[in-house]
Each structure stands twice: as structure tokens, then as C-alpha cells.
Amino acid sequence: MKRILMVGSILLVSAMSWAQSGQNAAEKSPLKAELKAWVLRSDTVDGKVVTKKLPADSAIIGDTIQYELIYTNTSDKPISGLEPMALIPEGTEYVMGSASSSVKARVFFSIDGGKSFHELPIYYTVTLPDGKKVKKEATPDMFTHIRWGMEGELRPGRSAVFSYKVVVK
User: Fold this and answer.
1) Is the dihedral of CA 113, 116, 117, 118 positive or negative?
2) Which residues form the domain of 71?
3) How many domains does the chain have?
4) Global pTM?
5) pLDDT tens track for 35-75
6) Domain containing residue 27: CATH number
7) With the CA atoms of 90, 94, 33 and 59 taken in that order, what torsion angle do they form, in degrees rounded to the nearest 10?
8) Is the dihedral of CA 7, 8, 9, 15 positive or negative?
């Protein structure tokens, strides 16, 4: 089976921003960011289905990978406007409904490489050979990025966890 490495690529694209006027780039970041990833595999043990979290340094076709982005406020002031963003790696497909967070947040998706983000459903326009334009709904295999818009503030010393799943194609 084909093996696909994904953890490194998502680390390169995972990004965050926050609305804090006057934040100097030379200052130490008030956020600590961590990425965790697991391959989820289910087995039946004594008649019960048990899901195991295995290291996600590589995965095979058909595996489900769960990603967690963990942001901790290391400053002594609340942070607002946190918007974690992550790549849906090439060769994978987002698992509908799997995006979640430990804080109140809205979820947005991109189908254009992260240039624009929209809440679901996302519509796009296709021009048919006869010139007629047709509106279609984007499917999970078209999603390229996911972004959360955290509502409220992340208090000092607190963490927020944002997670989602993908299936390796």
C-alpha cells in the first residue's frame, strides 16, 4: 500500500492570527502552538469496537487521521480574534462534520488554496460548453483548508483545541 507523509506538510501551513493592535513582530509571541496528529484505527476486542490512536508519521490509503491544533495563551493578557488555519493535505479528504473546538468558534473552509474562506455550504460556478453558467455545491474532496474563527477571548494560561479529521485517498 502507498504510504503518505502528512504531518510535516500540515505543520508548514498551520497558521494563526489574532486581532491585537500594536503587536510588534519582534516581541515574543503570546501564543504557544502545537500540532498533534494520529491515525485512528478500530479493532474489535472482546466484542467491543475499540479505536486506537497510532502515530501519524505515515499513513496508508483508507486511514483516518485526526489533527489537533492546540493554542495556549502564554501572556498575562487575554487574546481575542484567534483564527487558527490548517491545510487539508493533498491526497486526503475532509471528513464532513469532524471539525470541532474546545471553545466557541465558527468553522470556515476554502476550496481555492486558502485565498477565501466560507461557511458551509460553499457554492461555485461552472461554465458549461454551451456557455451556460451553473451553480454547484462544493464537496469535501474539494476543500483545501479549514479555519476557525474563535469567539470571545483566550484568557492567560488557557488553551484552545481545534480538531478535524481527514481520510487518506
Assistant:
1) negative
2) 3-168
3) 1
4) 0.82
5) 999 999 888 889 998 888 988 887 899 999 999 999 999 99
6) 2.60.40
7) -60
8) positive
